[in-house]
Specification:
about 240 residues; mainly beta; 22 strands
């Protein structure tokens, strides 16, 4: 395991620890965790920036906010807008956005100045031509987006709809299944957009090793399997309020 991976943020969030010892002498207003290749976002009275394992600043530039490196790129926010830094401290591109997310699966969600979301690739170029009311992170090769009607769908890395089915709300895929909400409630779907079972719930959690925690409309908490069958009842339904 790399040394940076063995560090942790101090309880005061002012520095990093390696074991129980401070990693460096400097103290900051706030720090975030180290990410590969061993850089962490920090903030002091001069602004926000990144440091290496010795507590030294990556560059002399200061920003409004900085975030961790993901896939070799870190989102930063400055007076000119949001963009991504490379690990050498240089800008990924000259393009600026109203907001930037973190890179996942070679794609990153961004919000343009007109308020519309889309994904960029690792070169900072738009991954497709469509624009959305909202766009989430990619996971397992697909991302959730919200179209102009307010409905949600999954798209692939080229921006093509996965199944064409749309939902009131939708989550990313986790081990091949995604949480989805239609007019009848929350449930789980497969990569074709088809429900795993006929029931609908008030809330559902992602599947965890073949089981998911759900809440029924009458307040009962249950654990179900991937066929929707009850495995355990964690709480009986709540009594009706007179």
């Amino acid at each position: 395991m790399s040394t940076w991976a063995r560090t942790r943020v101090s309880p005061e969030r002012t520095h990093h620890l390696l074991g129980e010892m401070p990693l460096y002498a400097s103290r900051f207003i706030d720090v975030l965790s180290f990410h590969e290749p061993g850089l962490a976002a920090v903030r002091d009275t001069s602004g926000a920036f990144h440091i290496d394992m010795r507590g030294n600043a990556l560059t002399s530039r200061r920003f409004t906010r900085t975030f961790g490196f993901y896939e070799g790129l870190a989102a930063v926010m400055g007076v000119e807008g949001a963009f991504h830094l490379r690990t050498d401290g240089q800008d990924l591109t000259a393009r600026r956005f109203a907001w930037c997310g973190n890179f996942q699966d070679g794609r990153c969600t961004v919000r343009a100045e007109d308020g519309r979301y889309f994904h960029i690739d690792a070169q900072g170029e738009p991954a497709y031509g469509e624009r959305y009311a909202y766009a989430g992170d990619f996971r397992e090769g697909f991302a959730m987006v919200q179209d102009a009607t307010g409905l949600h769908l999954h798209i692939d890395r080229q921006g093509c709809p996965l199944s064409g089915l749309r939902f009131l709300d939708l989550d990313v895929f986790h081990k091949g299944f995604a949480r989805a909400r239609d007019a009848c409630g929350w449930h789980h779907i497969d990569t074709m957009g088809l429900p795993l079972y006929p029931q609908r719930f008030a809330t559902v959690e992602p599947f965890y090793n073949g089981q998911a925690r759900v809440e029924t409309r009458d307040g009962a908490l249950q654990v179900i399997d991937e066929r929707g069958l009850l495995m355990r009842e964690l709480r009986a339904r709540l009594p009706e309020v007179p």
